[in-house]
């Protein structure tokens, strides 16, 4: 029997069954009705997919805040009634300020001659398990047509918000993502008063790393670099990180171990550091799990455990893997600072995990004099003040000398108001220092 004859026979049989079975007929009518009822919805979805282009961002995405500001500024020319607030940076005034932003729901805007539909939704239940303090939010931007041109312009405008050759962005890890904590004027390394040989070593090493990707791959070495700065508080370790990053035109992504509630959170934070930035873990010795482990006594106790957790939920194993594990990203530059690097576990500071360790100590006379002259470049009495007031107190932290220099300014202003004459130079003491 041919296929055509077989189909005709089956149709005749089905019709006979339907004529004699009211229940089967009703079921087929119901199925057909459901299909027809859902047809407009499916057709609308198909038309939407064919006729629109959309971009969806989560508030954990780094560019989310900048896009939010762009949408806020575009929306203010429209009659928007559902509002929220967003913090944006005003380059013209060189300051942060609060601006109106789009609230929950759908908003129809007209941007560059195109209709843009913006949808904001927020999960009121918070993060996974309700543990996150930052409520997950979504921003969806939809344009008519299949061209990405309008969305690309929005992203370019978002990138330009914080792009400024004279400033450096400082990001801070909080509530599951990096946020812009501040924008700082780029500082030259000449304004950091640590021994010149240390600065030169670091500049050479970072340059070699950034230019040596092919050599790392040839050797089969992981292409990442970690630097540790250790020394007393106030010696400029964090400032040195910022100025080194600025020298290579990079932003700084700061991570505080107390802000990571698990090993997975720390790993996520390190992997979200942008390729154009450097990571910074400050005061890594402040976490108990980074200290020397107790010698194994034959009986495993919690204090001996390699996976012992501190109050934040971190383990030493998790920190080690985040810095140098299988999922640590290639090309990453990390800095860690410590006041007491001798307290850190050997596995943490071993070669290959911490590649370069530099001691940033208290200021010696040459750096202290350079800093004093930098603060008072036109003051002929600065050398005499330095020899009388600073030289006998060295070595000291740069933070302490800064206080003295700023106090001197207040003193001189007071003397100027009372027409006092500054004390003359003491050439003997300064000549002794300068040799």
Automatic annotation (TrEMBL):
The main place the protein resides is: membrane
Kindly give the Pfam families that the UniProt entry links to this protein. AAA, BCS1_N
What SUPFAM superfamilies does its record include?
P-loop containing nucleoside triphosphate hydrolases
What residues form the membrane-spanning segments? 20-39
Q: Which Gene3D superfamilies match?
A: P-loop containing nucleotide triphosphate hydrolases
Q: Which UniProt keywords apply?
A: ATP-binding, Membrane, Nucleotide-binding, Transmembrane, Transmembrane helix
Q: Where in the cell is it found?
A: Membrane
Enumerate the spans annotated as AAA+ ATPase domain.
223-364
Highest taxon, organism lineage: Bacteria
What InterPro entries does this protein's entry cite? Answer: AAA+_ATPase, ATPase_AAA_core, ATPase_AAA_CS, BCS1_N, Mitochondrial_chaperone_BCS1, P-loop_NTPase
- Per UniProt, residues of the BCS1 N-terminal domain are 27-192
The membrane-topology field of this record reads: Single-pass membrane protein
Entry keyword annotation includes Nucleotide-binding? yes
Q: Which family does it belong to?
A: Belongs to the AAA ATPase family. BCS1 subfamily.
Q: Which PANTHER family match?
A: BCS1 AAA-TYPE ATPASE
- Please give the name of this protein: AAA family ATPase
List the source organism. Brevundimonas intermedia
